[in-house]
Structures are given as C-alpha cells and as structure tokens.
Recover the amino acids of this structure.
C-alpha cells in the first residue's frame, strides 16, 4: 500500500474512533501511532526524492537493459547563485553568533556501529586508521574556534582574498558522525559565511531529508574556505593552501563517515584525480572514516539524470547507517 493510502486509512480510522466516542487509547497504541506517523513522513521524503531522481511517475526499478546515463565526472564551477538565505536549524541559538555566521554546535553523538564489511559488497579501498586522541566537547569547540580565526587571517591565495566578502569555515556539531565535504563557496556562501546555502544547498537539504538525515546533525565544510572569482573551479595550489585547515577540522571532529560531493572534494580528501563515476559505488578510507563519493548538488542541478546515481549512493550510505529505505527491506 502506498504511503498516501496508509495516511487516508489512518485518518478514516481515527475519525471512526472519534465518532464512536472513543477517548482512550492504550499507551502501546499511542506509541504505535507516533511510530507510524514518523514512518510515513520519512517514507514520503524517500519516495519524493526517488521519484524525482528517476524522473518518472512510477517508482519501479530501472531495467538493467535500459540505457544508463553517464554524466561528465568533472564538476565545473561552484555553487550557483541564489537569493535564498541561510538554512539554520531553529534549535541553534543565534544571539551570539559571530559576524561570519560560522557555527560550532555540539550535540550528543550517536554511538557508531562496529565497522564491518561494506554493504555494497565491494572491498573498502584503503585502510581505516584510528583517529588520534579524542577530545571532549569543550576542547573541540575551542579548537574549531581557534582554527576559524586562522582561516579568517589567511592571505595565501592572493587572487581570492582580495575579492572575498567572508571566509566560509564550516557549520554543524563539533562531534558530528557524518561530514559533508563540498568544493568551494559560491556567491551566497561568500555573502552569508556558511557552506551550501544557495540553490545547491537547497538540493542538499532535500537529499538529506530523503535520506533520513538532518542538516543540523551533520558537519558541512568545503575544500576551499574562500570563493574563487566567478565561481571558477579551484586549482591545486588553492586546495593545498586550505589543506591544513580542512584536515585539522576533520581531525578535531573525527567523523565516522565523509561524503565527498564532486571531484574537487575527491582531490582534497582522497588526493585522487579519478573521476567521480569511477570512484562512486563503494567506500574509501580516510584516517578513521569511511568515505563515500558522489556528484555535487550543483552538478545535479545541471544534469538531472545524475540524480538517480546520487540517490543510489545515498541509499548505500543509509544501509551502512542502518536507516530504513522506503520500499526496500534494506537487504539489497
């Protein structure tokens, strides 16, 4: 039964109870109704994004005999310009935010599952090496704030620094289990001082919701902390200038998973020039984290057919995290 049919049936049942004068529902049933509501909302998000990714009214699997779209693996340019504003969590206090709107939020960290075989069935590329000594929440926040000041003071990339409005450090819990790693700030990010707030950021939010994740429970950062002129592709020297910053961020946060959005993120994290198309579909290793590679949301905005591939990548991550997938037993 489709989720809207479940919803209709549930509304009819509740209406029948009300008309029958039923005013008491056992606690177990109350919990069941709440769980069903959560399930419906999550599955509707899954189905909405998968429907958009497949580009069809039906959610039937794509036939293996059908032609598969192979997009250009290179991500050209950065985040598109948009008039949208920052998508801050309503639960994050904003009264004492610094001018750049860079945030370090600390929330309880979920217990990570033991690292086992990849659900993709393919071997892990690289070796997981334990992170260094862990830090308490106060130390993490302090070190990130100190690192942010170093970013603000950086003048290494002369072509960029004279044009930037703000540096874009990163945002999210200081002990996030998952890090979303992008390319470089765009015009909106340069203005606001937060990564992924433009059109590509809106698509990223949609992907996260469909994947059962929340923006305020992942840490979001870019390879570059400043916007390249005219949103051009970052060059190797600029990535290397920012390397001490993003590597220190990851070392402080110590995520269990890193999602590389696009080829620039791959060059920064994995130090690889392989295409996204060749690297996606399995997990790689960076320090103590498993790394997933997929297409940048900005690329998806220009190449809608690639959304299906990114959705397959996100489902691989969901299976790894134990997040249920709509219409699937989770065993594929």
């Amino acid at each position: 039964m489709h989720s809207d049919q479940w919803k209709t049936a549930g509304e009819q049942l509740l209406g029948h109870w009300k008309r029958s004068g039923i005013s008491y529902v056992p606690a177990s049933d109350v919990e069941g109704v709440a769980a069903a509501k959560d399930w419906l909302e999550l599955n509707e998000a899954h189905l909405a994004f998968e429907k958009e990714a497949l580009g069809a009214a039906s959610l039937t699997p794509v036939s293996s005999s059908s032609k598969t779209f192979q997009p250009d693996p290179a991500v050209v340019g950065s985040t598109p310009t948009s008039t949208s504003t920052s998508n801050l969590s309503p639960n994050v206090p904003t009264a004492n935010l610094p001018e750049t709107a860079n945030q370090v939020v600390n929330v309880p960290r979920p217990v990570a599952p033991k690292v086992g075989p990849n659900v993709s069935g393919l071997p892990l590329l690289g070796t997981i090496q334990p992170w260094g000594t862990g830090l308490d929440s106060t130390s993490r926040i302090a070190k990130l704030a100190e690192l942010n000041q170093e970013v603000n003071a950086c003048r290494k990339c002369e072509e960029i620094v004279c044009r930037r409005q703000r540096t874009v450090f990163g945002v999210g819990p200081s002990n996030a289990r998952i890090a979303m790693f992008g390319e470089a700030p765009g015009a909106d990010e340069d203005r606001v001082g937060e990564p992924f707030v433009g059109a590509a950021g809106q698509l990223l939010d949609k992907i996260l919701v469909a994947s059962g994740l929340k923006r305020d429970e992942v840490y979001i950062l870019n390879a570059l902390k400043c916007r390249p002129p005219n949103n051009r592709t970052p060059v190797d020297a600029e990535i290397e200038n920012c390397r001490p910053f993003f590597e220190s961020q990851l070392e402080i946060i110590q995520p269990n998973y890193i999602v590389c959005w696009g080829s620039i993120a791959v060059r920064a994290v994995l130090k690889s020039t392989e295409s996204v198309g060749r690297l996606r579909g399995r997990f790689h290793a960076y320090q103590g984290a498993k790394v997933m590679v997929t297409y940048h949301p900005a690329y998806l905005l220009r190449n809608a057919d690639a959304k299906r591939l990114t959705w397959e990548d996100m489902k691989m991550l969901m299976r790894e995290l134990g997040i249920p997938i709509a219409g699937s037993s989770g065993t594929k």
Observations:
- The chain has eleven helices and five strands.
- Residues 27-54 form the longest helix (28 residues).
